[in-house]
Amino acid sequence: MSNSVKIKSIVFNAIDEFNLSQEVDSRLEKNEDEILFSRAGFTETGKLDSLSLVYFLVTIEEHLQKEFGSDYNLNTQDLIEGKEKDLKNIEALIRYIESTC
Question: Are 48 and 59 a contacting pair, CB within 8 Å?
């Protein structure tokens, strides 16, 4: 299985785990076009606020560490700083993760 397929599977599994702790209207869809985060001035509305975004990223990082080793670091600080590009949607997040593996 290629890293790309593994990463998509990891992200989708993390979505399942994340959704267990969310209200129905705050759950993420396993869809690459799903908008993750929004800010003032965006026309598209994301599902995650800043706290749930961090929780979601930590969930993904834990899944990535199981697959790629405990030393794997998602570098959430850089990811959050580049949120307009790297956290626009699930597809952008997957591309970011692929670039770090």
Answer: no
* Greatest pairwise CA separation for the chain in angstroms: 40
CA 80 – CA 57 distance, rounded (Å): 9
- The pair phi, psi for residue 21, each rounded to 5°, is -100, 10
Strand partners, 37: 48
pLDDT over 90, % of the chain: 43
* DSSP annotation of 41: T
Distance CA(75)–CA(1), nearest Å, equals 24
- Distance in angstroms (rounded) separating the CA atoms of residues 64 and 51: 20
Residues 6 or more apart whose Cβ sits within 8 Å of residue 79? 57, 86, 87, 93, 96
Whether pTM exceeds 0.90: no
Contact 77, 58 (CB under 8 A): no
